[in-house]
Design goal:
It is a single-pass membrane protein. By secondary structure, the chain is α+β, with helices and mostly antiparallel strands. It is built from seven helices and ten strands. The chain folds into four domains: 62 residues, no CATH class; 105 residues, Tetrahydropterin Synthase, Chain A; 45 residues; 38 residues, no CATH class. 48% of the residues lie in helices and 24% in strands. A hairpin with a 5-residue loop joins strand 6 and strand 7. The model has no long low-confidence stretch (mean pLDDT 80).
Length: 271
């Protein structure tokens, strides 16, 4: 095998060095990510330019690129907090968030890649303790979960907005009370429900009784008015009218005028 010419050796070495430099200089940023450039010899973290976008990039081999997820993310947190009367409550919550893309350099420079543990989670825990401490266990168990969720969101957002983090939502997934307190609340709620049902039955029965009374009163008033209107003269006139109608009948009969009580005719027939 022929030896390589001496002139070829430096060329091969140069080529190898170039390949290594290109590999070291190549940076690929995936979808939903952005890069923060760190210039080793000229100023450190670049904060006065937009972060590097998706795709393939070539940077000087002595510089570095720190890649961040810039899509919405979710972080979960389990906490133990105290209610307004000092009882320990277990709270499961999660946060939807994303770093503010335009301030990604600032976020990296001031908070670093562990900004979730350093900023977001401690703020959520602090806000949750503050908010839950305003409510009783009964309120936490029943009607106030949405209000608690909204208040934790507002208090957390107020702080992390200035820390280059965009908070999209806080979700309170579960509120766990001590077993004895939970049972006591459930008994109380059951008793209240039974009381409401009993009151409803009383109101319904009262309304039904009032309806029957009104109907009976109406009938009594009608009978009283009718009795007051039926004088002897009216009854006599109606008797005469009825007699005349009977007299028109084809059946055999004898009409004796003025022989009945109160002067009404008597009708004698063959039936």
């Amino acid at each position: 095998m022929n030896k390589l010419p001496k002139i070829a050796i430096p060329g091969i070495i140069t080529l190898i060095v170039l390949v290594v430099l290109i590999i070291k200089s190549a940076v690929t940023i995936d979808s939903g990510q952005a890069g923060v450039l760190y210039k080793t010899f000229s100023g450190g973290v670049v904060i006065d330019e937009p972060p590097m976008g998706e795709g393939f990039h070539i940077v000087a081999p002595w510089n570095k690129v720190f890649i961040y997820e810039v899509r919405q993310q979710e972080v979960f947190e389990k906490m133990q907090v105290l209610s307004s009367n000092g009882l320990e409550i277990k709270l499961d919550a999660s946060a939807w968030f994303e770093p503010k893309r335009e301030f990604l350099g600032k976020l990296h420079q001031e908070k670093g890649s562990e900004y979730i543990q350093r900023v977001l989670l401690p703020t959520i825990r602090s806000a949750a303790r503050s908010v839950v401490g305003r409510y009783t266990p009964e309120q936490l168990y029943s009607s106030k979960r949405d209000a608690i969720q909204a208040e934790i969101y507002e208090e957390t957002k107020k702080i992390v907005d200035g820390q280059y983090i965009q908070l999209n939502e806080i979700l309170v997934r579960d509120v766990t009370l001590p077993a004895t307190i939970k049972e006591a609340i459930e008994r109380k709620l059951k008793q209240e429900q039974e009381s409401l049902e009993y009151q409803f039955r009383l109101v319904t029965a009262k309304k039904e009784a009032e309806k029957v009374t009104i109907e009976a009163q109406g009938k009594a008033d009608a009978n009283r008015i009718l009795s007051a209107s039926l004088t002897d003269k009216i009854l006599q006139d109606k008797g005469i009218d009825a007699t005349l109608e009977l007299a028109k009948s084809s059946n055999t009969k004898v009409v004796i005028v003025g022989s009945g009580d109160s002067g009404l005719p008597l009708i004698l027939g063959n039936n």
